[in-house]
Design brief:
heterotrimer, A alpha/beta (about 525), B mainly alpha (about 300), C mainly alpha (about 350), A: about 525 residues, alpha/beta, Rossmann fold, six-stranded mixed beta sheet, about 25% strand, C: about 350 residues, mainly alpha, 15 helices, about 0% strand
């Protein structure tokens, strides 16, 4: 199957997401669609998958112009897409999730109909047996690791007889070892005659498995190259373009930080919430230190952050700042004025969506408002944040729910960084932002470190962690599995710490946050 | 010793009889909630079923016709919930309460001529040879067709829910209507069917109460049984098999209420009458602890309704 | 295009703008309710238009009927507040009925204990007892929610039945007046335990309590930091907790205040209307209060006129029962029909404006 996109454009309001992009996808090849966040890669592929209609241009399938008006249509043409947000139902089994996505599922779903080869009706489990031989069909999806879930999504798409597979940033959630396994699988699928489009911003993905590279920037196609004709350096240059007047992100120098005495002590911390638990967490942070927390999502990061800021009850241990106990197992959890919190998914975790931006900003100092609050100064504060962080639209009377995810993220960062705090807990602060905005947020965040705040920074992006953090602690299964110095550690060592190497260990339980991501979020 | 065994057994079967209407509602509501919809209107649907079933039995003299009519009445009233929730996007709790008030009002209004009427009810199985089985025959013989029908519906519902494609879709709608829609299955027909099935079961439950169990009609005679059932759905963890023990909780508390008096325990009947509400409530507390700790079998689609803390 | 041309709109666009205004759904609801209630009368073989106006006259026709409307208004108003305040925190409590009964129970208990005290002491004691009783029946489900996570809708619904049975227990048992023969009840309240009434009618202090409480709550909830905290917690309890707003404390507080108000309604009914505690004290007020709270959109000032309207419906149902032999259940049916119309029109309107 041969697909051509000809001069395709897409606009959202004032923003041009794709500007006259032409691209072809040949049978049996792996195309890497390379670009920074916000370059328009996903939008382009979502048009191919029928999620948005293009404003301009045409899509040709095997030389014939075709209108792909819905994902159903795309799937019937043999185009399948695996998204960053999984559409799996955690409470159902692997088999049930496959059956839900299978077009001709049998009426009776007794398990033995599928498991005993003699009575097998259909090929529902064939790809599962082929690609994940160890995975039992009756395992509940909520007990699977992120890598296994991704594999399951891929199998769902393969079950639809997809000839063209689009994978949206598939390695962003995977530790290095699992990414390697995925690259192998992608090569195998291409050798079997399928085409694979790999949306990515990572150079390793390109180098490991692409046949051709398509570089995008600001909605435009910059260049198309054979993999063998390009180098990492040249690709980075094409991807970034001319980096104009963007000051480098500076972090406090290692030596000056490590000389300081510890400011924040986390001692023997343990907590549990729902199916999640953390235990035996011992960490200390010095003033100005950026402590990165690496780990596969769902290993207790969420609960660790909640426990530090006083949203979860501790079952053991305490948190001490400058000798004063902030949280302790013997007390009810309480938020404190000394800690800033930039949670993941700000729309869900950081704002009251149906209240105004002014109210949402005022929440950071709610305790200090008078009993009948005056709103004029609050509005002024909000306006200055909107301006400094380039939040669009800059109207303090809008409801928080009316802002886009990226703008909301900027607002929350602005709110949390506006005052002097001793400890800043930041979970995935740049998620969903384009490269420029992410850069600005890193700058603002790490400036606070230079001013003496301790920063606990949870991230999935090992590259960013390696670049900016002073130390990287790996969390796995609710425990600290190792602390690394990014100047000398090897990515694969960190990766090994992130995934358990012992095969008898149960996979980590995903936290509630993962479930909302796969569940009701939209 | 023998006396005690007989007493316990007869208490248990008395509990089963009085639990039957509640069990039917629990089963219906489990199916409704499995599709991500909660319906508090089962109380009103049950009352409509009770009144209609009693009236039709009184007029025709045939309790089976009464049961069928009761199911129809329950379905008709549940359509109000369908229209409000699926058609107009109204709040599910509020819509359920509206249906509850409507069912209470309509059944009281149209049931006036039948208050105090006598009807021919079902014969128990006592005469059919079951009663002559040694030891337990006398208890089994006291059961009636509605008890049996309700018990049979448990495996039927389970088979449908866990072992068929439609049941799988039904469950996936309750977990996430959005994902189900993205997979190309519209959630609306399933939620429609789920509410209507709840209507059928609660209408039937009304008949089981008025036509079979009490052979009597008084306005508001269900006295909160439907609401207790909604609570027991949580105790049953949305699993049809656990519906029976959950409903027996209500049955035992009600049977105890009557037994304790006959045993000469000197407690006011009004205080004893609080047991069928308090005991399920206490068990509910324990169940919610499980829910809070995660799991508990709650369909994710209900999360917004149940745990906003 | 300048200002004058935009102002000079054609009649059609003017009409469109009027139809999109905030009053349109309300007008549709009223018209639909009038039509539905007439249809209900017609279905039951009554003369629809005449009976409808008879119904309006029954509630608002003359001074006496209006005073009876106001008598019904006070418990509706207080129970509606008891539902609306928790709703401001996102709680769906249906417990006003039980709280009303508990208020009557505790208030009566206080009266029986302090039977011989002078009125200036007895009255405040009675009111305090009632408030405590109602608040207890609000705090129980609140604790169940905050400690164990029990859904408040289900617990309040079940506790209503328990509250009603507890009143039955005392009036049939320990507090039964030996001289009451057919209809068991406590002894009559002494003079000092009868709440003051106005203008030789049965309209009593309960109405004043309700109106004052509605106004205070309105100011607190819309203007104060506490009210803002409720809004934030309702919208996102997690964010509220991060800002230092305790969801748990607020749940207890709003349920206690709500219960206390419903408790006042209960003792007012026992004291002024019945002069004693008895079975069937005030059946149905709780659900009517729920309806009013929902109709008002949890807006405390709108609750006042809506309670009067609903009081009128209930008062006229009483008079229609007497003069037109219309069963009392018709009031329930009309309330349910009104509720259904409001939910349907409101839901569709919301969907329309979002699209």
């Amino acid at each position: 199957m041969h697909i051509e996109l000809y001069n395709v454009s897409k606009r959202f309001g004032d923003i041009t997401a794709n500007d006259g992009v032409s691209l072809d996808i040949r049978e049996g090849e792996v195309v890497a669609l390379l670009g920074e966040n916000g370059a328009g890669k996903s939008t382009l592929m979502k048009m191919l998958f029928g999620l948005y209609p293009p404003d301009d241009g045409a899509i040709l399938v095997d030389g014939k112009e075709t209108s792909i008006h819905s994902p159903q249509k795309a799937m019937s043409l043999g185009i399948g897409m695996v998204f960053q947000q999984f559409s799996l139902i955690p409470a159902l089994s692997v088999l049930d999730n496959l059956l839900l996505a299978y077009p001709r599922a049998p009426f009776w779903t007794f398990r033995h109909l599928f498991e005993t080869s003699a009575a097998r009706s259909g090929q529902i489990l064939d790809y599962l047996h082929e690609l994940a031989p160890g995975l039992a069909p009756h395992t509940l999806v909520r007990d699977l690791s992120v890598g296994q879930r991704q594999l399951l999504e891929l199998i769902k798409v393969l079950n639809l007889n997809a000839r063209v597979l689009i994978l949206d940033e598939p390695t962003s959630v995977l530790p290095p070892q699992e990414a390697e396994r995925l690259w192998g699988m992608i090569r195998k699928l291409a050798e079997g005659g399928r085409s694979v489009v790999l949306i990515t911003h990572k150079m390793e993905d390109v180098m490991a498995c692409a046949d051709r590279v398509v570089v995008m920037r600001n909605g435009k196609l910059i260049n198309t190259l054979e993999r063998d004709d390009c180098t990492e350096v040249s690709l980075v240059q094409m991807m970034m373009g001319e980096r104009v007047d963007r000051a480098p992100v500076t972090t406090p120098p290692h030596d000056s930080v490590t000389r300081q005495p510890a400011k924040v002590l986390i001692r023997d911390l343990a907590a549990s919430q729902g199916l999640q638990s953390i235990r035996g967490i011992n960490l200390e942070l010095r003033p100005g230190e950026i402590l990165g927390i690496a780990g596969v999502s769902g290993n207790g990061q969420h609960l660790l952050a909640d426990a530090l800021v006083g949203l979860a009850r501790l079952s053991a241990g305490d948190v001490i700042i400058d000798g004063v106990t902030l949280q302790s197992a013997s007390r009810s959890p309480a938020s404190s004025g000394q800690v800033s919190y930039i949670p993941e998914q700000p729309a869900v975790n950081a704002v009251a969506a149906d209240l105004s931006l002014t109210v949402n900003v005022a929440l950071s100092h709610f305790r200090n408002l008078s009993f009948f609050p005056h709103w004029a100064p609050e509005k002024a504060t909000t306006e200055s944040i909107l301006e400094n962080y380039e939040v669009r639209p800059p109207n303090p009377d809008l409801k928080a729910g009316q802002l886009s995810g990226g703008n909301l993220q900027k607002l929350v960062v602005g709110r949390e960084l506006k005052d002097e705090k001793d400890l800043i807990v930041a979970a995935y602060p740049t998620m969903g932002l384009d490269a420029g905005a992410a850069h600005d947020i890193y700058q603002a965040l790490f400036r606070k470190a230079a001013e003496g705040a301790a920063i606990l920074w949870i991230s999935e992006d090992l590259d960013d962690l390696m670049e900016y953090a002073h130390r990287i602690a790996v969390i796995r299964g609710g425990e600290i599995a190792g602390i690394f110095d990014p100047r000398e550690a090897d990515r694969y060592d960190i990766g090994r710490a992130m995934t358990s190497q012992q095969s008898d260990e149960t996979p980590p339980t995903p936290d509630t946050n993962v479930e909302t991501r796969t569940g009701v979020s939209g | 010793m023998e006396m005690i065994i007989i007493e316990v057994l007869s208490l248990l079967f008395a509990a089963l009889r009085s639990a039957t209407p509640v069990l039917a509602v629990v089963l219906g509501e489990i199916m409704t909630q499995r599709s991500g919809v909660i319906n508090l209107g089962v109380e009103g649907q049950m009352l409509m079923g009770a009144m209609t079933g009693f009236a039709v039995t009184a007029i025709t003299g045939d309790p089976w016709l009464g049961v069928v009519a009761a199911c129809g009445a329950g379905i008709l009233l549940s359509l109000v919930h369908v229209v409000l929730v699926l058609g107009c996007g109204a709040n599910q709790i509020a819509s359920g309460i509206a249906v509850m008030i409507l069912g209470g009002g309509l059944s009281a209004y149209y049931g006036i001529p039948f208050v105090g009427e006598k009807i021919n009810s079902f014969d128990s199985f006592g005469g059919s040879g079951i009663g002559s089985i040694p030891l337990i025959g006398r208890f089994l013989g006291a059961t009636t067709p509605t008890v049996l029908l309700t018990l049979i519906s448990i495996p039927v519902i389970s088979l449908f829910l866990y072992r068929t494609r439609s049941g799988l879709h039904w469950r996936s709608v309750g977990e996430s209507s959005e994902i189900t829609r993205n997979l190309g299955h519209s959630p609306v027909p399933y939620q429609f069917a789920a509410i209507v099935f709840g209507g059928l079961m609660s209408g039937f439950a009304g008949a089981a109460l008025a036509v079979d169990y009490t052979s009597n009609w008084v306005e508001h005679m269900t006295a909160g049984r439907g609401l207790v059932a909604v609570g027991l759905v949580i105790v049953a963890r949305w699993n049809p098999w656990y519906a029976l023990p959950a409903a027996l909780l209500f049955g035992v508390s009600e049977a105890l209420n009557l037994r304790l008096q006959s045993w000469g325990v000197d407690v006011s009947q009004y205080l004893l009458a609080t047991l069928p509400y308090l005991i399920p409530l206490v068990v509910l507390m324990l169940s919610f602890r499980g829910l809070k700790a995660g799991g508990g079998g709650m369909p994710m689609g209900l999360k917004a309704v149940f745990t906003n803390s | 295009m300048n200002q004058t041309t935009t102002a000079a709109t054609s009649p059609i666009t003017g009409l469109k703008r009027l139809l999109n205004g905030p009053w349109t759904p309300a007008a549709i609801m009223v018209l639909a309710f009038v039509a539905a209630s007439m249809a209900f009368f017609a279905i039951n073989g009554r003369e629809p238009v005449g009976l409808f106006f008879e119904m309006v006259r029954g509630g608002f026709g003359d001074g006496y009927s209006f005073s009876e409307t106001l008598v019904k208004t006070s418990p509706i108003l207080l129970t509606a507040l008891a539902i609306a305040l928790p709703a401001r925190l996102g709680l769906i409590s249906v417990g006003a009925e039980g709280q009303l009964y508990l208020g009557a129970l505790f208030g009566t208990g206080t009266v029986l204990l302090a039977f011989d005290q002078p009125g200036w002491l007895l009255m405040p004691l009675m009111l305090a007892g009632a408030m405590v009783g109602g608040a207890v029946w609000g705090i129980v489900p609140a604790l169940l929610k905050t400690r164990l996570g029990v859904n408040e809708t289900i617990s309040t619904l079940l506790l209503n039945y328990v509250g009603i049975l507890m009143v039955s227990f005392v009036v049939h048992g320990p507090w039964k007046n030996p001289n009451s023969l057919g209809w068991p009840s406590t002894v009559e309240f002494p003079e000092g335990a009868i709440l003051p009434t106005f203008f030789d009618t049965r309209v009593h202090m309960g109405l004043v309590f309700g109106i004052v409480a509605a106004m205070i709550l309105h100011v607190l909830v819309t203007r104060s930091r506490w009210g803002l905290g409720l809004q934030v917690s309702r919208s996102n309890p997690r964010v509220g907790a991060t800002a230092g707003i305790s969801y748990e404390k607020n749940v207890l507080l709003v349920m206690a205040i709500g219960g206390l108000l419903a408790g006042l309604a209960g003792i007012a009914e026992a004291s002024v209307i019945q002069n004693r505690l008895q079975d069937g004290l005030a059946t149905g007020y709780g659900l009517t209060g729920f309806l009013v709270a929902w109709l008002s959109g949890q807006h405390f000032l709108r609750i006042i006129p809506l309670s009067i309207l609903m009081g009128g419906l209930m008062a006229s149902a009483d008079s229609l029962q007497l003069y037109a032999q219309l069963p009392k259940a018709s009031a329930d049916i009309l309330q349910a029909v009104l509720f259904i119309i409001v939910l349907a029109v409101g839901g569709l309107w919301r969907r329309r404006t979002m699209a």
